Amino acid sequence: MIFQRARAAACVALLALAAGPAGAAAAAPAGWDACPVDHFCVWEGTDGGGRIIYYRHGSKDVRKQGFAEGAQSAWNRTGDTWCTYYKNIYWPPSFEVNANARVNQTILSLKKC
Question: What's the CATH superfamily of 27-112?
Answer without folding.
Answer: Crystallins (2.60.20.10)
